[in-house]
Amino acid sequence: MILKSVNGQPCGSSNENYTIIIQFECHPHSKVTPRYLYKDECELRVEMMHPTCTPTCSTRMNGNLLNFQDLQELGTLAVREPSNKQFKLSFCKAANGCGDGISACDLTNGANTSIGQVAFQRFVINTETNDLIVKSHIGASKRVRLDVEIKLSCNWNAQGINNLRYLVPSIQGKHFKFSGESSQACIKLPQNCIITDAKDSYLMYNLTTLHRRNGNWKVGNVSNGEEIYLNVCGPLHAPSAATTCSDQYSQVCYLDRRRNVINLGSIPLDFHTVDDVIKGTFIAGSVCVTNPNTTYRSEIEFSCSQYEKGPTLQDINGCTYNIKWETPAACSKLFTTGDNCVLYDITGIINLNEIHKPLDRKYILSRTSYLRYNLCGLLNQPCNHNSDASICFVKNNREYVLGFSNKQLIRDNTLLSLKLVGDNCAYQTKSVTQVYFHCNHSAPADGNVVVNMIEENCIVDIIIHTPLACSPPVFSKCEVNIGNKFYNLTSLSQNYNNYLVRGTNTNAVYILNVCQSVFNTRDSLCPSDSGACMKNLTEINIKYKYQSVGRTNINNTPFIENGELVVRYDTGAYCSKGIHHSTTIHFQCHTHEEGPRFLKQVECSHEFFWRTPAACGEPKRILKTRSKDASCIYTYPDTKKQIDLANVNKILEVKIANGESYKFSLCEKNYTHCSLNGTKCNTIDTRIELKLNSNGSSIPYLEYHLQDSEFNKALIYLVCVPLSESHNFTYAGHKNQIIEVNLLTYLSCIGNETESSNEQTQVYNSTTSNNTKIKHEGAFRDLSTENLNNNSSNNLNGLAINQDQNVIKTKNNTFSSSNKELLINKKLSRENNCFIKNDENEAIFFLKNIKSFHASSSSENNYSFMINQPSPDCNGYICKNDYVFIPRTDIFMKPAVTKVTHSTLINSIANRYDMGQLNGL
Q1: Locate the MRH domain: which residues (predicted)?
Q2: Which domains does the chain have, with CATH numbers?
Q3: Is residue 879 classed exposed, middle or buried when 0-12, 13-18 and 19+ CB atoms within 10 A define those classes?
Q4: What is the value of pTM for the model shown?
């Protein structure tokens, strides 16, 4: 390979310019330094080693080429010991008198035993001592194999190899070891100034800010007339008189009163953390005056400080100078990386994979340009014929790759980001797109997006607010029966934020939540399972800024203590004497909501009181199942309220006529697809999203993204069935590659709520209809049993359809047309102040302790009549065959009646809706 550089200065009197041709070579004897070949009139030719070449007598370490070819020039080295041992050694070539291809041999007592071959010679750096180790061996099997090892220590002033000697073992075996000193062993690699905490891998220290480009740090506490100069994370700018420090690439340089110079350390070694201190050493200084067998070194301790105090000499121990340095650079930062768009840190797990969509997204920049992107994966449509892109810039219908796919997440303190590099752009530089993700629980999952683009430099910043950037909360029990009372603290739980409470210490603020762990935001980086957390406002070290003062879990339950409802969070961060922090919240019954207030702190125990109506209790009731985690909890995109489907503990199976079937769980992010009548099944990961506005309807639904089948989606509509304890699936059909199923459950009665006594029921904005369809805000969903029987699956999760009677029988409600008896459901009855009114607005009928009527009609259909509103509205709804809603209306207002009985009331409703004659009244 050659590189040709043209258009140099004019070449003599000719019309040509000088040209340089660089000829790249790679062979075992390639030289690291460039070599001039020849000059031919106006053309110069130079030979250089190819950048990827590793010739004989060299090695690579951390991407750096280490060249030891000068050792090869030393020739054969003889080693004679007082013990009459005699050896010959060489580097990278055969030693004279040892034989062809032999780099080391034992010549003791006139013998010639080969102990190392040139072909097996290799160079290794001991990362703990920075010594150069040269190894070789001879013999293929362990039984006959001999090994030789030469350890070379750094000595800047050594000529060739000094003090080369044989290390006599106590018992001579098959291993031969030698030691010596050489300037070739003074190997100084670039210093790594980004240090990971030894205990917490998500914490990082960055010392690069301490490097001074145009000067040095002057070490304090040094005797008058003496000076010590120091620089880290880059070269020392040695004083002009300190040539020794310059020649030896010193990092710590000492000048005495007479301006004599001593190198106190050149090579950085083992920078690491011990507790809260960064310790590092600069070794390989000048030969120590008091001990010629060693060299000077400097040991530095960096500690976190709010203010920069600079380096200070603490003491001198023989040939070691001890320096302490208090600096903000030694304060830890939250820093970690994660592959495949998944990251773990102090806040928990962040998984952004759901941000990748089946269709590419667009962001309009101008009338003629836009971004097409799909993060955490590839674009579905290639960009400029490139299928590895994630971000595509389109301008005037031309495409440019602004970012190739990269799924490595980076957490840098409070910033969560992806960096994507694209094609060459302006000035032949690569385009760079930096994507920042911000935790926002109220944003949609795919994010609210803002783009800032500097087109001429091809730099793009994308900011995305999404709940996916928030670690999932840990839930605890919030509903409990104690004695004859039921307590429910769910209404106090914060879904998008936390409670902030000031303690007696003005420098600290408590971060609290109830029923679930605290939410982590840019201003709250508490441990992921903290129910209570304390933030130190003056602490700059993030390692100690947030401290858990109590953890929560699914078994954390309210209890009564001294007549008060109490929630306790235990096992917080370690406090002292084997005790961990804990938090106790005392809930007191009150007519108004006052929020949490600080009560007291006794050593490691933190206490709060909270006056709230939620602590007053209600009559004992049946408890609902609560999700152990967020897997069964979905958020409505419009109201941001949540629905917990843990109670629907069922696997839905949908059978298709061609022998295919699908199984769905509401709490698992996967589904099972079976073909060949169930003989071949695969479980496939998927995304599940709660959405609205499908086909014009505002009924919420769960959307499953399907793969590898004839269907691409499955929609499960969450149909509100108030006052019912059962959860039932009905199959609504499939069309346009979409499977549609209805889940009939009281859990979905969350959208438009009105409160009545201790229960909540759905208010339907429907108009009168005599067909078996739901009308909900203008859109119909056909749920008739006739339609169910026309579909291919007549057995959904144990819910049987009786095709003879056209009636669905359930566990809780059985209808009978043979005994002609009206069934009055008193199981859920409660006090109702419900009045029927005439034109004079007088109360003429009073219903008490009646929750619902169930009746059978002459058409063999079954109806339920529900009274669910207090006066004066007195509105209800009607349910056909336990499934289909005939809408709520003002049925009790018109026509007005002067005398009302149960029979006349119900039959007047039946006539109005053309139900036929109702029996058993």
Answers
A1: 191-333, 339-472, 476-618
A2: 2-55 (no CATH), 64-185 (2.70.130.10), 194-331 (2.70.130.10), 334-469 (2.70.130.10), 479-619 (2.70.130.10), 630-808 (2.70.130.10), 823-919 (no CATH)
A3: buried
A4: 0.61
